[in-house]
Task: inverse folding
């Protein structure tokens, strides 16, 4: 019954907590900060998450470490491996999320499908909801195979966020947008995550095409790390996701807050 109900895409929630938090107002750009659960430890990731939540960001994305992270660049891969070596699990990542979610900023989990399947999708959805999570991103879950997992997530009042890539064709963009809730995630580069000096040309055309097909907030991610990037994105998308640059700061015993505050200056 849940899976069948989940296929009724017209029933997808629009004005969720996550969508409201990320929708741009007056041309401002919202900022989403990424951390890896358990990097460099469970306690430290909760502490850093809380500091970032208080820094002015609109939402926080928390990665669940996985041994085969297809979309992650070297910085986030190293963080994930370190977290796994220190004993981080899906259950542990949900505890990290719960600790950060108490700060009131929407929490989005970034995970791959295998950890969810191994944990049991229905159990994962229920416990993520209990932890205060607002949504879930699963980069390797194609929309054609999203059910019943996304249906279980929706039944637990969790947004399911799907990704659009620079190579995605317009007809498929429309389909992805119809399946997403919370926001639509636009990948700015053809490749994996990681800090880059310049963002690629042609992004604005992709963003415009996505906006034709959804009233949800549109967020850009992968390679974003500088004030110049934020200025280039402002007015074209609702939010920017910054990951590798923050994880690199954490690797250096920082917390990413100073970087976030600098980036926020270019968001308005």
Result:
């Amino acid at each position: 019954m849940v899976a069948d109900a989940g296929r009724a895409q017209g029933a997808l929630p629009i004005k969720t907590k996550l969508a409201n938090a990320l929708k741009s107002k007056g041309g401002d750009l919202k900022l989403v900060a990424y951390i890896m659960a358990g990097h460099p430890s469970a306690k430290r990731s909760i502490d850093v998450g809380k500091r970032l939540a208080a820094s002015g960001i609109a939402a926080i994305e928390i990665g669940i470490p996985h041994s085969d992270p297809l979309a992650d660049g070297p910085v986030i891969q190293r963080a994930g491996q370190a977290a796994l070596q220190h004993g981080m699990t899906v259950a542990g990542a949900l505890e990290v999320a719960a600790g950060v979610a108490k700060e009131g900023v929407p929490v989005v989990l970034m995970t791959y499908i295998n950890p969810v399947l191994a944990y049991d999708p229905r159990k994962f959805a229920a416990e993520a909801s209990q932890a205060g999570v607002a949504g879930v991103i699963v980069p390797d879950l194609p929309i054609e195979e999203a059910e019943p997992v996304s249906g279980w997530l929706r039944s637990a009042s969790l947004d399911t966020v799907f990704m659009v890539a620079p190579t995605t064709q317009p007809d498929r963009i429309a389909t992805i947008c119809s399946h997403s809730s919370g926001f639509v995630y636009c990948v700015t580069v053809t490749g994996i995550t990681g800090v880059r000096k310049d963002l690629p040309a042609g992004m604005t055309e992709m963003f415009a095409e996505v906006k034709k097909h959804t009233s949800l907030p549109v967020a850009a991610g992968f390679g974003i790390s500088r004030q110049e990037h934020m200025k280039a994105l402002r007015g074209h998308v609702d939010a920017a996701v910054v990951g590798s640059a923050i994880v690199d700061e954490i690797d250096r015993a920082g917390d990413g807050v100073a970087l976030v505050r600098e980036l926020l200056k270019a968001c308005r």
Notes: The radius of gyration is 17 Å. The chain has 13 helices and nine strands.
